Amino acid sequence: MRLHRNLVFAVIDGLNLIFNEGEYADKVVEKLLKRDKRWGSRDRAFVAETTYDIVRWKRLYAEIAEVREPFDRENLWRIFAVWATLKGINLPDWKQLAGTPTRRIKGKFDELSKTRKLKESVPDWLDALGEKELGNAVWTKELHALNQQADVILRTNTLKTTKKDLQHILAESEIKTSFLKAYPDALVLEERTNVFTTDAFQNGLFEVQDASSQKVAAFLEVAPGMRVADTCAGAGGKSLHLAALMQNKGQIIAMDIYENKLKVLKRRAKRNGAHNIETRWIENTKVIKKLHNSLDRVLIDAPCSGLGVLRRNPDAKWKLQPEFLTEIKKTQQQILQDYAKMVKPGGKLVYATCSVLPSENQEQVKTFLTSESGKDFTFVKDEKVLAHKSGFDGFYMALLERKTN
Ligand SMILES: C[S@@+](CC[C@H](N)C(=O)[O-])C[C@H]1O[C@@H](n2cnc3c(N)ncnc32)[C@H](O)[C@@H]1O
């Protein structure tokens, strides 16, 4: 691989925004990719993947480069030099890369890779927490899996097409995909490419959604005609899937405390041809109270640490703080307590997160079931999806049923 100066400069600028200005990696990459219209798909892939790679391995590379935060531009170049050396790239004779100690970098990599928190590049507190919650052996494997680049997975919108037809349509645009056993609507891209610009996407034939995430709506056991609430709907990934599973029949009430997310949801529903979704902004507790005892199904896709989706959000490793985790767990329990009341007797509830920590998952469900509001519910089943076992994002989902008396 030959390094191109303007692409590497874009990466350095991006890293500066992410590491020093606290900007989100996905937003920064989106901005960087708009920088030069002449860049082809390989150039764009270089900028995006190199930026994500260096964010993912920040701690390891910084240790090898012997630099500390806040990183100045010279530090960022040294980190970049570590990335390029470990990739086996022949360094050009640019002044910023002069004197890169190639041999020393390789030696330090071998030495530091003996320590998990350095090898897998995580903060001390997070490494200790993961080991405490999952045990040494499982956490070691899980953390390693969460540091791999995620495949791009599509969910066929069965309101508009079939998986087979979609595969053919994409193949006509030179996008090759394959089926995924055990995931009925999923297609996996054989090569990474920007699918958002395709007509198929613009026409609502698919959504990009990880395979593990595609399990959640199905876990709720919905059927056409039911009255369902998606209580933490966000921009609606699960609401859209629910609409497809319900064949556009019945009612889906998509709710969130952020009105702007629901606006995005509405646009996506239109593109998907999902006509049975209505949005309700949770601006006060009355919105929930009005729906008490009235729904066949309630989905709580709870806000969480996001540790299960580190493969696609590597900067969460650096942004997450122990205090946030403490707070979010309180919110999760409060949401369970309050929103479960919307389930009617005999109805069902799914509590889901994209975390792999038992304290956000099965322990929250256990606390709920032993509480005053939880005693009306029985535990039906749960699924702990770990990235190292599934090959996809880490997720948790539990199905509960409200007793009839
Ligand atoms: C995991 S995300 C949801 C992702 C979404 N369901 C999807 O499939 O695209 C969690 C969502 O919960 C919302 N949220 C946070 N606190 C909430 C609360 N108290 N009540 C309802 N939603 C809340 C957040 O705004 C966020 O959109």
How many strands in all? 11
CATH A-level architecture of the largest domain = 3-Layer(aba) Sandwich
What's the level 1 CATH class of the largest domain?
Answer: Alpha Beta
Alpha-carbon distance between the termini? 68 Å
Protein structure class? alpha/beta
Low-pLDDT runs: none
Strand content: 15-25%
Number of domains: 3
- Biggest sheet, in brief? 7 strands, mixed
Helical residues, percent: 40-55%
SSE pattern, N- to C-terminal: HHHHHHHHHEHEEHEHEHEHEHEHHEHEHE
Count of helices? 19
State Rg.
23 Å
Short description:
This protein has 405 residues and is an alpha/beta fold. It contains 19 helices and eleven strands.
Structure report:
The protein folds into 3 domains: 5-120, N-utilizing Substance Protein B Homolog, Chain A, CATH 1.10.940; 153-208, Sun protein, domain 3 (Alpha-Beta Plaits); 214-402, Rossmann fold (3-Layer(aba) Sandwich), CATH 3.40.50. Strands 7-6-5-8-9-11-10 form a 7-stranded mixed sheet, sandwiched between helices. α17 crosses α18 (362-369). It is 44% helix and 16% strand. The protein has helices at 5-20, 25-32, 41-56, 58-65, 73-86, 102-112, 116-119, 124-134, 136-146, 163-172, 199-202, 214-219, 237-245, 259-272, 286-289, 316-319, 322-339, 362-369, 387-390, and strands spanning 153-156, 177-179, 186-189, 206-208, 227-230, 251-256, 277-281, 295-301, 343-353, 377-385, 395-402. The radius of gyration is 23 Å and the shape is globular. β2 and β3 form a beta hairpin. The protein is an alpha/beta fold. It is built from 19 helices and 11 strands. The structure holds S-adenosylmethionine. S-adenosylmethionine (SAM) binds at residues 231-238, 256-258, 261, 282, 301, 303, 331, 335. S-adenosyl-L-methionine binds at residues 256, 301. Residues 142-403 form the SAM-dependent MTase RsmB/NOP-type domain. The active site is at 354 (nucleophile). Belongs to the class I-like SAM-binding methyltransferase superfamily. RsmB/NOP family. InterPro entries: MeTrfase_RsmB-F_NOP2_cat (IPR049560), MeTrfase_RsmB-F_NOP2_dom (IPR001678), RCMT (IPR023267), RsmB-like_ferredoxin (IPR054728), SAM-dependent_MTases_sf (IPR029063).
